[in-house]
Design a protein that fits this description.
The chain is mainly α and 240 residues long. It is 69% helix and 0% strand. It has nine helices and no strands.
Length: 240
């Protein structure tokens, strides 16, 4: 362990939390609010995501991303700024619902049945935040940048590769809603649904959290998602 870098040790600590939450829900099973979520708690899934993260750490070092614990990055940059961003996004997500207004900031915000009941929500959404950020940011994003910049462009155009990857990864969550809105539409009818979703806060917040990863390392987007889930799923979800 002494030979491991601080960043790897922190990552292993995150995985320890990830596995501990899995064990908790094995001991105290709950009914998952969305079909298919139980698959994300399988041991195969846990091992796959954990290994993806280790690959992602290696890829991030090859593609110019900061270490998980980069000494040049302050805790204000690593935690405070992302936390404020996550809280703001959380407030933007739930505020229209508190006033009984339609919310297009996050498509799933319209559904009350997506929230796990408190206090299980604390562990459930911590688990979800960890696996999404490992998969989307630490693994998928760095892999796309590596393929474009390091392999195809032979080490060039890293910044361009990052922004391409940022857009692609940021589309992962809103894409199902875009496809749903496009059903039955053709030609110019498809423009409005696409633009509506691209102008929505789900896509914009993903773009920003990915930028935080590029600037401040993996703990920044993880903090932003955790604080967003705190406001939306844990506090708001626990009150309704």
């Amino acid at each position: 362990m002494r030979q491991l870098s601080t960043s790897v040790k922190i990552y292993l600590g995150i995985i320890a939390v990830f596995v501990s939450i899995k064990l908790f829900f094995v001991t105290f099973p709950i009914e998952f609010p969305v079909k298919g979520q139980e698959q994300a708690f399988s041991w195969v899934f846990v091992m796959t995501i954990s290994l993806m993260g280790l690959v992602g750490i290696w890829l991030s070092r090859k593609t110019g991303f900061p270490e998980i614990w980069d000494e040049k990055i302050t805790n204000r940059q690593r935690f405070l700024i992302p936390a404020i961003a996550g809280i703001i996004y959380g407030i933007l997500t739930v505020a229209p619902l508190l006033f009984n207004q339609i919310n297009r900031l996050h498509p799933d915000a319209l559904r009350d049945d997506i929230h796990v009941e408190f206090p299980y929500s604390i562990l459930f959404y911590t688990y979800g935040a960890i696996f999404l950020e490992i998969f989307l940011k630490l693994f998928l994003l760095t892999l796309i940048v590596f393929v474009i910049s390091n392999i195809i462009c032979r080490g060039k155009f890293q910044v361009t590769a990052f922004w391409i990857a940022d857009v692609l990864v940021s589309l992962y969550e809103p894409l199902p809603y875009i496809l749903e809105d496009l059903q039955g539409k053709t030609g110019t009818e498809t423009i409005a649904p696409i633009m509506t979703n691209l102008a929505g806060w789900l896509f914009i917040s993903n773009l920003f959290s990915t930028y935080l990863f590029r600037k401040y390392g993996f703990l920044a987007p993880l903090t932003m998602r955790l604080t967003h889930y705190l406001i939306w799923h844990i506090v708001y979800g626990g009150l309704i």
